[in-house]
Amino acid sequence: MILVIGARSRTGQELVRLLRAAAVPMRTLTRSSETADGPDSVVGDIAKPATLDRAMSGVDKVFLLSSPAHDERAWHQNAIDAAARAGVSHLVRSSILGADPASRARFIRHHGQVDEHLRESDVPHTIVRPNFYMHNVTTGWPPTVDPQGNYYAPAGDCRISMTDARDVAAVAFQALTGNGHAGMTYDLTGPESLSHAEACDKLGERLGRTVRYVPVDDPTARSAMLTAGLNKWFTEALIELYQDYRRSGEDGYAAQVETTVFDVTGAKPRSLDQALTEDLGSPAVGHSGS
Question: Is the pTM here over 0.90, yes or no?
Fold first, then answer.
């Protein structure tokens, strides 16, 4: 029996689809305030350790992912500790590329600290570390493009080897159902490294309009995020992440292209063009790109 924590995320939804298609016994963790995901869901909350003990009863393996939040580090540690108490034979955790417990960027620091906690636990595990998700571009960016076709972000000229969540799920599926993955850390990227300007060009082709990347400084980006309704913690976390990407530059850790998706699954990772087509449809006819 596999317990999926984070089943409503993009990665989690695809992993659940793959497990169901393969008829693998599974259950999903669902908070009591949410609508159950079907007969294979179990009520629990990673913020409440006692509920995790009940949810993991009879579970052999666990997939662990949570949305970014102020308490994300404690949540993941709760789940890891519960897995240890339950004698789980394998836990697959979604971390982040470059995870480092000493990082100045809280997302990267928190994931690095939790990765350390997992490695120090008695739980056999696999850590998957995806880079910046492509669905940020395919579904997150379009609503924020202004009427003049400008997309604003504090990314500077960094390059990022963006990852598709469907490929992350495919790697997690193999780690959960196959052999030889315990103790492994998998860095997951797409097949190319792109600047925000290049990603905007590709997005514009799919939307049939010009989309132009406009770099902004951190105070401008912070103000825009807060005005858009993001909470202060998440806003600061995003600013810190972009700062880390800028420090990485055009050929740093965020720009590196890995072959892990193919090595683990036997399938090539999706390019941003493929992700845009799957999420938004074929390129608009007659788009000039200018």
Answer: yes
